[in-house]
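re: ur question from yesterday

yeah so i grabbed the chain u mentioned. its 83 aa long if i counted rite. heres the sequnce exactly as i have it in my notes:
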Amino acid sequence: MEKTCSKGHTFMKTSACLVCPICEQERTPIADFLTLFPAPARRALENHGITSIEKLATITESELLTFHGFGPKSIKILRTLIL
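ran it thru and got these structure tokens back, copy pasting raw so excuse formatting
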């Protein structure tokens, strides 16, 4: 199904997700460590105000897994980031 975002980009999406892939590609993460995560996990962290390593350190893995978009793959990335 063809969709158009608020910036006028036209893109194909088969799901109900309204995230424009063109806008997402142009978007720059707030913090460098966020570039290590896939876009859904990065958005989940940003939406919960986690934009620094210090804030990330205060959240448990089980709490992170409750965030929509943050899954087991992101936990693996997190573990390598901490070590």
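noticed a couple things. The first strand starts at residue 2 and ends at 4. also The mean pLDDT is 86.
anyway ttyl
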